[in-house]
Structure formats: structure tokens, C-alpha cells
Amino acid sequence: MSDAVAVLIVMTLGTYALKSAGPLVLGARSLPVRVQGLVDLLPAALLAALTLVSTVGAGSSISVDARLVGVVVAGIALWRRAPFVVVVLVAAVTTALVRLLL
Amino acid sequence: MIRRQAASIVAAVAPFGIVFGASAATAGFTLLEAIGFSTLIFGGSSQFAAAEILGDGGSIASAAIAGLLLNVRSLAFGVIMAPALTGALWQRAAMSQLMIDESTAVGTSTTDLALRRYGYLCAGIGVFLVWNITTVVGHLVLSDAGDLISDLGLDAAGPAAFLALLWPRLRQRPQLRVALAGAVIALVLVPIAPPGVPILAAIAGVLVAGRQTSAVLDGPGDE
């Protein structure tokens, strides 16, 4: 079994449990406020870490390269309220251009 | 109205599906594995995170845990949507698989329970179809890409996608603080911890949030 399949099995079962708990088990009850607060915040921490690590991470070291320029330009595109597809495209094109020029 | 809303949200998913297919290929997933992720897990950012961590040499545990943590919010969505998703056990079980940001965002845009269910199902089924088709497209187009991924700058597409998912949350102060803390924790740990662990450790960032009001559904901007 490949690593991907192992992760797939664990995530499928766990994700389905999370998705279905409301409709199948909880019914009309709601979550405690403190739990709800943590649930709201988790994605911000994880997504920020993923953004940064996939921008400058290279295995177990940090590598500042063309990707960083691409992601900074993506940030500017987001700030200018560009749609998702534009954000991803400018990041890729910018990174490719920086590699071509350097 | 609710159908138009659902349609625009479904269309917005397409490019992200292509990027996921491409990252899955980059991470060494077979086409079947990539499709498995998109049908069985069906949770955009979590699939992405798992592919990223595995592709980086992270362990099965760190990839799966990071992915699952990103899906904890589905629990909250389920609680919010439950009153509109009534029916026989098999119906509730099937509808639960569609519990993602998009379906919940469209579903909660109205107060009428029947309309909520309709909007949830339109968006959920639409995103499910588009997400899976574009996963296949992304994987097929980029599976043999190798150097092409770096030449075309596609390795920057993943981080740009994460940033785009994060962006709408940064308008709220507590979210911004948590994001900054998470980013710093992860960055410090990259050179000393095994791949994947820095991402998991970033959840400690929620400790700096302070008090905050609940706002799970401040927009459809995730997945």
C-alpha cells in the first residue's frame, strides 16, 4: 500500500465522521461556544503555515527562490481582489519569468 | 437566485481542482489515488495539504492529521446545516458527503429550510462533479511534466492557492494574529523538525487569538 493510499483511508474515514456528525448524530443541538471558536481559527493557522512552508521550504531546509517572488505577486493580486484563477496564474507566470531571467 | 449563486461558486472551483490534480501528480500520486482523494475525502484544502506534505517527504501520520485538522470545520458546518438536511438515514448519510465550504455557504444564504437544502444540494453536487473532473484534467496534463512544473512556475501555484484560501480570513483581527503565529511557528520548525510536523505545530498559533466572536461562515472563499 502506498503512503498516499494510507493517508486516503485515514482521511476518508475521519473526514466523513466530521462531515456527518451533524446530520446523523447531533441533529438540532449546537457546539459549545469555546469549541466553535477554536474550530473557526484552526484553518487560519494551518493555511498560513502551508503557504509559507510551500513557498520557502525545501525538505528540511529553507530556500528563498523564485517561488517567493511569485507568491508575493499573488498576494498583490489578492489585495487587488483578483479572482482565484488569476492569482494562481500570475504566481506561476511570475515565478517562471524570474527563473528565466536569473 | 440560489441557483445562480451555486453556479458561480461551482465555476470558481474548477481552477483549484486543476491545481490539485497537478499537485497530486507532483507529489507522486497515481491518477486513481488522486481521484480517490477527490471523491472519497472531497475536501479541497485538506487534500491539498496532504499532497503537499507527502510530496515533501512527510510521514503518513503528519499528512493525515494536518488534512483532518483542516476538515474539523466540516463538523461546525454539519451542525449548522443539520436542521435542513432531514430524511431517512441513507439520505442524511449521502448528503453528509457534500458537507464542504461551498455547499454550506450557499445553503446558509437563506432562512427557508427547503431552500437551504436545495441550495446545499445544488452547490454540493455541482462542486463534486467539477472538482473530480478537474482533478483528472490537472493530473493528466501534468503527470509527466517533471521539469515543466518548475519551468512554468507551477510549484508556486500551490502556495498561491493556499494564500488565496487564507486571504478572506485575514480581515478579522484574531484570524490574522493566529495566521501570523502559525506561519512563524512553522517557519522556525522547518530546519529542525521532520517534514509535515511544522504544519501541525502551527495549530498552536490559535493560542494567541484572544477572545473572538464566532464567524464560521463569513464567505464562500474556501476549498
Task: Provide a descriptive summary of the structure in words.
The complex is a heterodimer of chains A (102) and B (223). Chain A is mainly α. Helix content of chain A is 78%, strand content 4%. The longest helix of chain A is centred in the N-terminal third of the chain and has 24 residues, at 3-26. In chain A, 46% of the residues are buried. The model of chain A has no long low-confidence stretch (mean pLDDT 90). Chain B is an all-alpha fold and 223 residues long. Helix content of chain B is 67%, strand content 0%. Chain B has twelve helices and no strands. Chain B has helices at residues 2-26, 31-41, 44-55, 60-70, 73-81, 89-96, 101-107, 113-142, 147-151, 157-166, 173-189, 197-201. The interface between A and B is large, with 75 and 104 residues.
Describe the largest sheet of chain A. Answer: 2 strands, antiparallel
The major β-sheet of chain B equals: none
Q: Beta fraction of the residues of chain B? A: under 5%
Largest interface: A-B, 75 and 104 residues
- The strand count of chain A comes to 2
Coarse morphology of chain A: elongated
Q: What level of helicity do the residues of chain B show?
A: 55-70%
Compute the average pLDDT of chain A.
90
* Rg of Cα set of chain A: 19 Å
Structural class from helices and strands of chain A?
A: mainly alpha
Features:
heterodimer, A: 102 residues, mainly alpha, two-stranded antiparallel sheet, 4% strand, elongated, B: 223 residues, 12 helices, 67% helix, globular, disordered C terminus
Q: What does the secondary structure layout of this molecule look like, with pairings?
A:
The complex is a heterodimer of chains A (102) and B (223).
Chain A: H1 3-26, H2 33-56, E1 57-58, E2 61-62, H3 66-79, H4 84-101
Helix pairs in contact in A: 3-4
Chain B: H1 2-26, H2 31-41, H3 44-55, H4 60-70, H5 73-81, H6 89-96, H7 101-107, H8 113-142, H9 147-151, H10 157-166, H11 173-189, H12 197-201
